[in-house]
Structure formats: C-alpha cells, structure tokens
C-alpha cells in the first residue's frame, strides 16, 4: 500500500529527467565503446552491454527503494554509514587495484566501488545527525561533529588514491550552510580560493596592492558616521598576505610538478607559447583532446556513431570521466546544452523539493543529494570543457560504471521516496 | 536568502558551461573540420597522366613511375639520422633543412622529403622504410619522353609550389602540375582527377576503416590522352637543323591552322627536366642568359619581319586600288627619303610587282607605300586603313594559339608614333621603313607563319593550334575551326603569290628549289642592333624566310627566323627548303644542302658581341 501511494506522489519531473539522462548516457557509452564486431546491445562482453545490465539493476533498486517505508532510511542511516566505513576500511586489506587505485571489491561478476555507495550513506548520516533534536549547528562542537561525518570517509578514500571522490564529500558542507553554519565561512573559503588563484596569476605584490585598493575604496564610499575598526582590518589584511605568501610556498615546495603543470595549464601561467603547447600535449593531453573533440562537433554535431575522434579513441577514458566529449562531438552544441539544461533543471527541482520538506531529515538529505550531484556535474563537465583543472570524477547517470550508476540512483530515489512521503508526515 | 544561494550557484554554473560550450562549438569551430581532424586522413589515388601523341599517332610523351619519400613530421620518432640519410643518399644538413621545412608547412600533413627516386632506389628502400615511423614512400608518375625534340612545345611538369597551392585548392603538396607548354595548357585534360578516400584512424594512427563508409570518397578519373598536330619527324629534323643556330621556326598546315612544327634554337632535351636532376638541370638551363635555351624564340622573339612584310604592302595597295600589278616604279639602286638615299640590292631598273617581289626591291615597295599614303586625305586616315589590313593577318596582337605564353608583336599605329615622337610630330617619311619590314613593325615567327598561311589560303587563316584530338574525339572548338578572313579580297592574292613563286623560279631563292615541288616564298634580311657597353652596335643581319608549298594546294606554310644568319636565302632559306621537302616528300634529295645545314653553326657570330674587340658583320663567308 505504501509503495503504491509513494508511486502516485513521486516527483515525475525528476523521474523523467533521470530516465532521459541515463538513456542519453547509455547511447553515448554505446557510441564510445562500440566496435565493428559488436553484435547485440545486450552483449555482456562489451562495456555498453554491461552498462545496460547496470541500468537494469538500478531499475530494480528503484523498485526496492520505493517499496520500502520512508522511515526506514532515517532509522537505518547510521547502519548504512557504518557499513560504508567498514567497506572502505576493508579495501586496505581486500581491495582490488585497477589503474593504480585500490578502490574496488572483486565480486567475481562485478567490481564494487564502495566509495560510490558511501556518498549516499554519508548524506543520510549527516542528515540524521543534523536533524537530531539535540544537535545545534551554532555550537562549535556540533559543527566539528558534522564535519567529521563527511571528512571521515573522505580520509579513507584519499589513500586509495582517489582524491576526486574524496573531494565530493566536502560538498556536503552546503547542507551545513543551509542549516545555519554562518555564511561567512563560505565567504572566507571563497576568498581563499580567489587569493590562491590571484597569487598564482599575478603574484603576492599585486594581490597586496589590489586588496589595499579595495579597502581604500570602501573607506572612501563609507558613511562618515561609520567607525572604522582599524585593528581588525589590518589584522585581516596581514593574515591575507601571509596566506598569499604561503600559497607561493605550497605551490613551489609542496605541490608536485604534475600539479604545478595542471595549474600552469588551467590558469595559463606559462607564458612561453612553446612550453604551454608542450604542457597541453603532455599533461594537458586529455583536456586538449576532449576540448578538440567537443569543438569539432560544432553546432549540430557529427551524428550518432559518426564521431571520428570518438571512434579513433582520441580522448582517453572517454566512456567514464570524459563521456561528455561524446555528447559534444556527436550531438554538438544542441546535445551539450540539452544535457547542461537537464542537469540544471534537475538540480533546481531538487532544491525546490528539499525546501518543501516538512521533515528536517528529508530536507537535509535533499540538500545532501543536490550537493553531491552538483559537485560531480560541476567538476566533471568543467574539467572536460577546460574551465577547471583535471580532477577525475564521473558524470552522474552518464559515466560508465555500475557502482557509480547504482550509487547515484539510490542517492536520488531515496530522496524521491522521502519526498513522496511528505504529506503523510504532515498528518 | 540562504535558500537562494544554492539555486544561484546552480544557475551560475549552467550559464558558465553554456558560454564555454558555445565558445567552443559555435565560435571556435572551424569550417574545415575534416581536414584538421586527426582521426580522418585523406588518401589520394592518383590517376595516370594522359599520353601525348603526334599528328600521325606517334607517341611523344608517356609515363614512368617514380617514388617520393614523404614525411609526416608529427609522426616521426627519434631515429638514427646518419643511417637514414646514407640510406636515402642525402646529407644530414639537407635532411635537417627539409624536416624543418616540412614542419613549418604542417606537422600533420605529408611533405616531400626526397623527391623522385628511381625504381632501383625504391626497391632497396622499400624494405627498410618500415623501421622509420612517420616516413613512407609515395608512388608518382613522371613523364617519359619518346622523343628528344619539342621541349618548348610539350613543356614539363613539376611539383606544385606555394603559389599553386594557394591559387588552386585542387593541389596538395608534392603533386605535379604542367608548368609550361602543352602540359600546362591542357593540364586538366591530361591530369584527370585524383580519387579521394577518407580513412578513419585511431589515435595510434592505425587505420580502422573507411570514414562514413566511404560515402564521401570519390573515384579517380584517368587523365585523357591527347593528339597534337605536331609532326614528330619534322620537329626532330628541324631541331637537328637548328644545331648551333639561334632562332625560331614555325610550320603550319594552312588548310587547318594546325601547327606542324615549332622549333626554337637552342633548345634542350625534355628528359633533362624529369627526375631527381630536374632542379639542377633547370637552373643550368635557366641561368644560361646568353643563349636562353628555355626562351621559346618561335613565339617570344619579336624581330622586325623584314622583306616578307612587303607582300602585305602589295596586297594592301591592291585592295585600296592604289596600284595594279602592272604599276611600275624605278629603282635607282635605292630610293630617296627627302635627301637621304636608302639602298637596294635588287640591281636597279624598272620594277613591276612581280619583279619587285622576287628581286625584293626596296624602291618598289617604298613607292607603293608612299602612293598608298598619298591616296588618303590625311596620314592618320591612311595609317588607320593600313593598320586594319596588317592586323587582319594576325599581326600586332596575340594570335590565340594554345600555348600559355606568347607575344603580340607590333603593328605601329598613330597612338604608337604619337607616343614615340610626340603628338603629331612625325610624318609618313618617318614610317616608310615599315614598307620593307624594317622600322617599328615587329612579328613573332608564329605570326609570320600565320601570315604566310593566310597568303597560301588566299585570304583567310585558322588560328594556329596544336590540339587535334582529345581521347578519340577530334576537336570541335570554334576558335580553331572557323576561318578568320583578312581584309584583302581573294583576287588580289594571285599576283603576289606569283611573285613569291618566282622568288624560287628566278629570284632570291632560286638555288633552293625542290625538284618536283612548286614553292612560293619570300626572303628577309633584317638589320639589327645591340648595345655593347652602352654603345649601339650593329650585328650581322637576321636571316628570315617565309614559304608555302605546293603553290596551288598548300600543305605547309613556314616561317624561319635565324638570328644573325645574314641574308634571307642563306640560313633561313636553306632550312625552310629542307623542312618543306622533308614534310612533303618524307626524305631529302639534296644531301649536300642538308649536310651544309647540319654542319654549319653560327656560334662564331654569337661570340662576336662578347669578344670584347672590334668585329665585322655580314661577312660573305660560308
């Protein structure tokens, strides 16, 4: 009965977009892994065939998720969280190494990547903790505790090594902001990133001059009645400069050459065009190829299965992290903008759904879902189209991979299940 | 407020992505994607270039295979340069230079590293090439000549240069194109159309199949053979006769305008401009600025036509009714222009048109010219009519034959004299030299041959041309198959033709008769000057001769121009006579005449201006 009513109240906009995304995603996986001797689309020896199977498993998972009581997820969130931590820990002993990263369990027919499932579990656990009546986000202790919930799995994932996946967990800080963590934390973080980039691009001296100018302008336009807190301002200014200096130090001494090269490429730090070209073709090879492939698609694209660079395997990891290049090459700007719009609508819709939850747990979890999807989407497409440095994480619902697809499906549909239940909770 | 933060971030990201994507896919997208696409390579299938045959179906030009070593700089892996160079037979410096050039042209398009290897070199290289990534051998077709003659007509093919690449999108670096002569004129017919295959490659540059299932591919269209009007035997014979002489010869079939022979001396063997030695040989020929073997004198030299031009004066005067064939002029071993006497070698006495022509009397034609001008109210009017008549014989402008180069010659007119002497500051006495083909008038040998053909046809000509047949299809081009009429009525030709026939019967060429064939001709002896250290110096006269035969049913009209060959009957007359006999009879009966022409050279004449000392001209020595 509950399953039936959940089905009736489920948010069909999200469901529709979900199906569109996995369909488009699969078509592109098909195109990028298609070979001349392919026989059937269900051919399990081919990657697209496997992905087809994963889609089937995901659909089964959806049925299961919708069938269960909404309260189940809140109740068992801690259990899920602990299980994921155990699974992540277990990798240190039983993990299977693929392409240098020990991120998988070999289940024989299937490689399970627990970090993908840990995302959902952590979002649930965070929501559970924050929605607890005794938690007060204004309290320093609770702030730290909340941070710990998502930093813990991240710390377990970093040594795999899979820094990209680890980074994803930090996106859950949005949930904290929504629930009352002062926004200036965000402001400070944002400022730090700005100063980091500005220092790399222009050097500490110009950052100092620039900041001084901004302060001076604020002084000039302020109302005369407002008193100037000289000491704090000077303190902040000095701190900022110290940070800027430390950026140089970290960049030159802590970063490795490959990291420096990535930044050189991203921020065009290398002024010598020959060297820049050299970096583009070595360190930046992936980005160079993916940009070129997308560019070559033009407005309308080359057509399904007609992507020459896709066929020629010019873009590495095209069916996983770089799947968006297939969209770009074969479907052109029409295709890429459609995908961007679908993600945008889905995310905005999810924010809207989260905001209408009466149950704080559902709302917080909803925010967790949005944060996780958003950071994947932002970093992945940003990297592929060359506006962000190379960080390897998958594009939700698109990239090849069973754990990822099932993980994202669970993440989304648990929230849709909670959402479908919201009227009941009102009663 | 807090609710909006995340939504704003989502929208901001969306806008950023869409801007970046539209920049990449809409603005930066270049229209020539397929050419820049590393995943698609175009492979060309070069059709064989069309053969060239002569008028009798004798082969002139065929093909031979040659092999270019090509390089795609991007694909080159570090290699043992020394070993590779010694294998190719080039120096390391040249290798480095060529590689740099190739890289500048394009890192991912093929460039020629070593052009035109022989079959033997290719056989030994073929095996070893595999070892060197980024290099491969491309088979090309080079010309193979079945004759040593006709280089100036046939022209040559060579690798396309930057200008060709920029001006004609058809060509790719390393391809060959007709550079001069027939090869250039009929490039598109001979060349055919290369086939294109689009190949899908992967990032290791391995072929993984046709691109779009070959739907964009085009088939090669073979080059078409052409037959040209040249008579191989006549051409070869003419070039032998020209040994050691400078000048130009053109023979035309009057009844069709087909060019039977076009000889320029000195010339070169076409084989020289084929293969690896091509550019070295070309420089050698091109840098010979004294004898200029690549300068086709038969269509580019513009001497004064000399006495053959007198025939047109007679025709123009007859047409305007100024004289009739019996009108007489007296020759005082010369004639007077004002107080100045100009000489004549005809022997003096009363001259009619007939003897005027066959004795080449200067006084007769000066008189005729004067009378012609006096019959009009103004000099300007007379000159206008005169110019119209002269030009109707194809003089004074480009003839329109099918070779890519040429010169217009000159029929001087009022505008010309106004420019040279100042407006109106000249009179008929200034221009009387034109009456005897000296002065300002100038004509290329092909124009003289065409003029002779017009007389042979008694009043019309066909634009001279080489093209006879494309594949099996005889040409049907109106510009070559329609008659161009001169402004002279047919009946006026007979007395002139008679005079020209008498040149052989009893005139200036009576020693050059061919047994059994009646020829009409006209000798010409042209004064000419050069500058030696800034001083105008007269050189030995140019020898000119025009003729056609047989008189009643002309099969050949010929003009021969021999630089510094002295009087007309000497070199030019001899050669014209021999060529006519060769063409009409197929063999030479006058062996002594032939021997003399084959052996005599004019090198001593050509050396005179460079000797640095005083020299005599017009010496009467054989």
From TrEMBL, chain A:
Principal location: membrane
InterPro entries the UniProt entry points to: FtsW/RodA (IPR001182)
Keywords: Cell shape, Membrane, Transmembrane, Transmembrane helix
The keyword Signal belongs to this UniProt entry's keyword annotation: no
The keyword Transmembrane is annotated on this UniProt entry: yes
Pfam short name (any one): FTSW_RODA_SPOVE
Chain ranges passing through the membrane: 12-31, 51-72, 79-105, 191-221, 228-251, 331-352, 364-391, 397-416
Location in the cell: Membrane
Superkingdom of the organism of origin: Bacteria
Protein's membrane topology: Multi-pass membrane protein
Alphabetical list of PANTHER family matching this protein: CELL CYCLE PROTEIN (PTHR30474), PEPTIDOGLYCAN GLYCOSYLTRANSFERASE MRDB (PTHR30474:SF1)
Name by which UniProt lists this protein: Rod shape-determining protein RodA
Organism in which the protein naturally occurs: Robiginitalea aurantiaca
Upper lineage: Bacteria, Pseudomonadati, Bacteroidota, Flavobacteriia, Flavobacteriales
Gene name of the record: rodA
UniProtKB/TrEMBL annotation, chain B:
Domain Penicillin-binding protein dimerisation: from-to ranges: 46-209
Family annotation (InterPro entries): Beta-lactam/transpept, Beta-lactam/transpept-like, PBP_dimer, PBP_dimer_sf, PCN-bd_Tpept
Coiled coil: none
Membrane topology classification: Single-pass membrane protein
Record-linked Pfam families: PBP_dimer, Transpeptidase
Keywords assigned by UniProt, alphabetized: Carboxypeptidase, Cell membrane, Cell shape, Cell wall biogenesis/degradation, Hydrolase, Membrane, Peptidoglycan synthesis, Protease, Transmembrane, Transmembrane helix
Localisation: Cell membrane; Membrane
Chief location: membrane
Domain Penicillin-binding protein transpeptidase: 247-577
Protein name: Penicillin-binding transpeptidase domain-containing protein
Species the sequence originates in: Robiginitalea aurantiaca
Highest classification ranks of the organism: Bacteria, Pseudomonadati, Bacteroidota, Flavobacteriia, Flavobacteriales
């Amino acid at each position: 009965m509950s399953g039936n009513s959940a089905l009736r109240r489920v948010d069909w906009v999200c469901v529709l977009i979900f199906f569109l995304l996995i369909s488009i995603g699969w078509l592109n996986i098909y195109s990028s892994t298609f070979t001349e001797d392919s026989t059937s689309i269900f051919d399990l020896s081919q990657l697209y065939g496997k992905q087809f199977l994963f889609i089937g498993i995901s659909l089964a998972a959806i049925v299961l998720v919708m069938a269960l009581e909404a309260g189940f997820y809140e109740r068992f969130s801690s259990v899920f969280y602990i299980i994921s931590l155990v699974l992540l820990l277990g990798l240190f002993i039983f993990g299977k190494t693929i392409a240098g990263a020990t991120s998988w369990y070999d289940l024989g027919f299937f490689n399970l990547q627990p970090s993908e499932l840990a995302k959902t579990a952590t979002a649930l656990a965070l929501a559970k903790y924050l929605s607890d009546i005794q938690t007060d986000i204004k309290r320093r202790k609770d702030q730290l505790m909340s941070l710990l919930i998502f930093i813990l799995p991240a710390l377990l994932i970093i040594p795999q090594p899979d820094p990209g996946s680890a980074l994803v967990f930090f996106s859950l800080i949005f949930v904290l902001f929504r629930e009352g963590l002062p926004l200036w934390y965000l402001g400070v973080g944002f400022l730090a990133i700005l100063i980091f980039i500005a220092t790399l691009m222009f050097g500490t001296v110009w950052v100092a001059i620039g900041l001084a100018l901004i302060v001076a302008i604020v002084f000039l336009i302020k109302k005369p009645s407002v008193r100037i807190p000289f000491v704090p301002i000077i303190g902040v200014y000095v701190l900022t400069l110290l940070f800027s200096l430390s950026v140089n130090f970290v960049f030159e001494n802590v970063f490795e050459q490959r990291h420096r090269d990535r930044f050189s490429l991203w921020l065009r730090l290398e002024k010598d065009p020959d060297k820049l070209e050299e970096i583009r073709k070595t360190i930046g090879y992936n980005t160079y190829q993916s940009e070129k492939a997308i560019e070559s698609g033009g407005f309308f694209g080359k057509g399904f299965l007609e992507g020459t660079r896709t066929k020629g395997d010019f873009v590495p990891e095209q069916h996983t992290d770089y799947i968006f290049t297939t969209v770009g090459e074969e479907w052109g700007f029409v295709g890429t903008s459609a995908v961007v719009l679908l993600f945008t609508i889905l995310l905005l819709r999810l924010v809207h759904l989260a905001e209408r939850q009466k149950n704080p747990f559902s709302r917080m979890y909803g925010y967790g879902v949005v944060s996780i999807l958003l950071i994947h989407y932002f970093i992945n497409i940003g990297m592929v189209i060359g506006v962000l440095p190379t960080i390897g994480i998958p594009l939700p619902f698109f990239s090849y991979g069973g754990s990822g697809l099932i993980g994202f499906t669970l993440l989304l549909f648990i929230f849709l299940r909670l959402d479908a239940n919201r009227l009941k909770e009102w009663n | 407020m807090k609710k909006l933060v995340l939504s704003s971030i989502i929208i901001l990201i969306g806008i950023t992505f869409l801007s970046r994507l539209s920049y990449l896919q809409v603005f930066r997208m270049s229209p020539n994607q397929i050419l820049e696409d590393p995943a698609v390579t175009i492979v060309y299938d070069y059709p064989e270039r069309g053969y060239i045959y002569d008028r009798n179906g004798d082969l002139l030009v065929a093909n031979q295979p040659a092999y270019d070593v090509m390089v795609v700089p991007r694909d080159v892996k570090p290699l043992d340069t020394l070993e590779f160079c010694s294998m190719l037979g080039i120096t390391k410096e040249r290798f480095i230079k060529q590689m740099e050039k190739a890289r500048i042209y394009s890192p991912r398009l093929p460039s020629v590293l070593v052009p035109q290897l022989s079959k033997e070199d290719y056989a030994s290289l073929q095996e070893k090439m595999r070892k060197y990534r980024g290099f491969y051998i491309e088979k090309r077709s080079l010309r193979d000549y079945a004759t040593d003659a006709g280089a100036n007509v046939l022209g040559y093919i060579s690798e396309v240069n930057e200008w060709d690449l920029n001006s004609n999108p058809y060509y790719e670096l390393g391809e060959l194109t007709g550079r001069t002569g027939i090869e250039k004129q009929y490039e598109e017919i001979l060349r055919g159309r290369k086939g294109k295959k689009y190949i899908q490659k992967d990032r290791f540059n391995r072929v993984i199949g046709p691109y779009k299932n070959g739907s964009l591919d085009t088939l090669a269209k073979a080059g078409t053979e052409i037959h040209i009007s040249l008579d191989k035997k006549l051409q070869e014979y003419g070039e032998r006769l020209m040994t050691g002489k400078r000048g130009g010869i053109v023979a035309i079939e009057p009844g069709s305008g087909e060019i039977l022979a076009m000889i320029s001396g000195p010339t070169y063997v076409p084989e020289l401009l084929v293969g690896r030695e091509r550019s070295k040989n070309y420089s050698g020929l091109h840098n010979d600025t004294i004898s200029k073997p690549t300068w086709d004198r038969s269509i580019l030299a513009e001497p004064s036509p000399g006495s053959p031009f007198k025939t047109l004066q007679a025709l123009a005067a007859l047409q305007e009714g100024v004289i009739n064939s019996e009108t007489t002029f007296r020759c005082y071993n010369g004639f007077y222009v004002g107080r100045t006497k100009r000489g004549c070698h005809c022997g003096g006495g009363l001259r009619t048109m007939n003897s005027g022509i066959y004795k080449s009397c200067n006084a007769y034609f000066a008189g005729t010219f004067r009378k012609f001008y006096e019959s009009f109210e103004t000099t300007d009017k007379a000159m206008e009519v005169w110019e119209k008549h002269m030009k109707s014989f194809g003089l004074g402008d480009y003839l329109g034959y099918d070779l890519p180069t040429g010169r217009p010659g000159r029929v001087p007119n009022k505008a010309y004299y106004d420019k040279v002497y100042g407006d109106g500051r000249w009179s008929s006495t200034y221009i009387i030299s034109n009456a005897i083909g000296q002065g300002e008038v100038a004509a290329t040998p092909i124009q003289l041959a065409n003029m002779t053909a017009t007389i042979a046809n008694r009043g019309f000509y066909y634009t001279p041309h080489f093209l006879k047949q494309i594949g099996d299809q005889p040409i049907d081009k109106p510009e070559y198959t329609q008659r161009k009429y001169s402004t002279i009525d047919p009946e006026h030709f007979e007395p002139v033709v008679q005079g020209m026939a008498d040149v052989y019967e009893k005139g200036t060429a009576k020693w050059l008769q061919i047994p059994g064939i009646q020829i009409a001709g006209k000798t010409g002896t042209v004064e000419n000057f050069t500058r030696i250290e800034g001083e105008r110096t007269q050189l030995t006269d140019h020898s000119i001769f025009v003729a056609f035969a047989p008189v009643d049913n002309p099969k050949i009209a010929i003009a021969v121009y021999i630089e510094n060959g002295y009087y007309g009957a000497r070199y030019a007359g001899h050669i014209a006579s021999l060529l006519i006999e060769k063409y009409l009879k197929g063999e030479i009966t006058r062996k002594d005449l032939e021997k003399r022409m084959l052996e005599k050279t004019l090198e001593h004449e050509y050396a005179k201006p460079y000797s640095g000392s005083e020299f005599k001209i017009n010496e009467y020595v054989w």
